[in-house]
Amino acid sequence: MSYKGFYRIKNPQKYKGDHKNCIFRSLWERKFMKYCDENTNVLEWSSEEVRIPYISPIDNRRHTYFVDFLMKVKDRENKTKTYLIEIKPKRQTEKPLVVEGKKMTSGLKKQIATYIINKSKWEAAKDYCENRGWKFVIITEKTLFGKNSK
User: Fold this and answer.
1) Domains of the chain
2) Catalytic residues
3) Backbone phi, then psi, for 41, in 5-degree steps?
4) Tell me, what's the pLDDT at 149?
5) Low-confidence residues of the chain, pLDDT below 70?
6) C-beta separation of 64 from 53 below 8 A
7) DSSP structural state of residue 97
8) Could you report the per-residue pLDDT of 99-127, keeping only the tens digit for each?
9) What is the pTM of this model?
10) Other C-beta atoms within 10 Å of 108: how many?
């Protein structure tokens, strides 16, 4: 997921933010941008426009979480719903496996720290959404590409 670039928006009236500066940080994000841009049920969307403060348990300091996407959609009952969306690899949404008696590698330590920080961000995002009647959703490759994708 290391590809990045500028997404050229086809429907700028739907994009809430600077439509000339819409940056994707992975091909997964680009795919989601294309979905938001082209889907007629998506009324408006933005990328990294919502900022949520959170306290990191790693350093006990205040940080800012830039949520990947905000999306307003028209559902089947013609009601408008708002979602904050985070795109993440499934492995980063699950607690890393620590095997007792095995050496803690620097890679595993980094995975654990990432997981802990992500959980703090996501709890802050859930609270933020709950206070506004929105929903926070984490999308992984399973959602983007189906069951059998990698």
Assistant:
1) 5-145 (3.40.1350)
2) 29, 68, 88
3) -80, -15
4) 46
5) 1-2, 147-150
6) yes
7) P
8) 777 788 888 899 999 999 999 999 999 99
9) 0.87
10) 15
